[in-house]
Design brief:
The chain is mostly helical. The protein folds into two domains: 122 residues; 153 residues, Four Helix Bundle (Hemerythrin (Met), subunit A) (Up-down Bundle). Helix content is 80%, strand content 0%. The protein contains ten helices and no strands. Helix 1 packs antiparallel against helix 5 and helix 5 runs antiparallel to helix 6. The two termini are 19 Å apart.
């Protein structure tokens, strides 16, 4: 039996991993240590909440001892490994340990990707389409990148207020990553619908599922795509030449709105996954 805790766990774990991984789009030395400290603290918080949800899913009390001591499943090992590595990575920005910073960053990337893949394994038995053992992890990884692009991109956009002479092309990287991931998500949606048509034992759409699916497509994908084009327009050379600071502030504002549309879309997608047993 699945619950809202499953939805919370999946979305927040993907946000923690995707947001952390996409920090590689910001070259080291471009911004000060405070940016990385802030990002580390944010993704530690999100990862910590995901760990609490992970314990709840395995029917374990959420205590300090269980948080760090419950290692009975590979998924739990990957969760706490990611959390501890990100914790060390964050601390290195106070102690200026550049080699350890690089090692822990890539360690966090690897443990995070493993975590996302393992989190998909416990839901494979409910999926009713061919190739689910590949499609579901790919869907989760794409969702992690999508969530990370808007969230880390939004925080990076705020840093143009701290360092006004930051090159605009680095903010464009996050917006481009948003577009490419949206295209992958749309392709996966079409592919999964094709497989759904070939399946016989599927959960039928009712009014509630139609509403949730409509929110998934119209807000989560179409709405986010619209915000991509608005952000792209804000960051065009003509807009930047007219008022660079104003252009980056406007783009950051639309990325903030994109966080909301992406969150709505991903929550709806995970709800449909658990209720309809289908990747949508």
């Amino acid at each position: 039996m699945f619950s809202i805790v499953d939805v919370f766990y999946l979305v927040f774990s993907q946000l923690a991993v995707g947001g952390f991984v996409l920090l590689f789009l910001v070259p080291k030395g471009l911004v000060g240590s405070n940016f990385y400290r802030l990002m580390g603290v944010i993704y530690l918080l999100v990862g910590g909440l995901s760990r609490c949800a992970n314990l709840a899913l395995y029917q374990q009390p959420v205590t300090f001892l269980n948080f760090f001591g419950y290692w009975q499943h590979p998924e739990s090992i990957s969760v706490i490994s990611f959390f501890l590595i990100v914790l060390v990575w964050t601390l290195t920005w106070w102690f200026k340990a550049s080699l350890l910073t690089r090692i822990t960053f890539w360690g966090g990337v690897i443990s995070g990707v493993v975590w996302i893949i393992l989190s998909a394994q416990r839901y494979l038995q409910i999926i009713q389409i061919p190739g689910e053992m590949f499609l579901l992890p790919i869907q989760f990884l794409a969702a992690a990148v999508l969530l990370g692009a808007v969230h880390t991109g939004m925080w990076f956009g705020h840093w143009y207020l701290v360092v006004p002479d930051l090159p605009v092309r680095y903010l464009k990287r996050f917006n481009s990553g948003l577009l490419y991931t949206l295209l992958v998500m749309a392709l996966l949606l079409c592919l999964n619908f094709f497989f759904r048509q070939q399946s016989t034992n599927v959960v039928s759409f009712n009014l509630f599922y139609h509403i949730i699916f409509g929110m998934r497509v119209l807000i989560g994908i179409a709405g986010t795509l619209l915000l991509y084009f608005i952000t792209w327009d804000c960051l065009r050379p003509k807009s930047v030449a007219r008022d660079e600071l104003g252009a980056t502030r406007a783009a950051t504002g639309f990325l903030f709105i994109a966080i909301i549309t992406v969150f709505i879309g991903e929550f709806c997608s995970r709800l449909l996954l658990l209720e309809m047993r289908f990747i949508l």
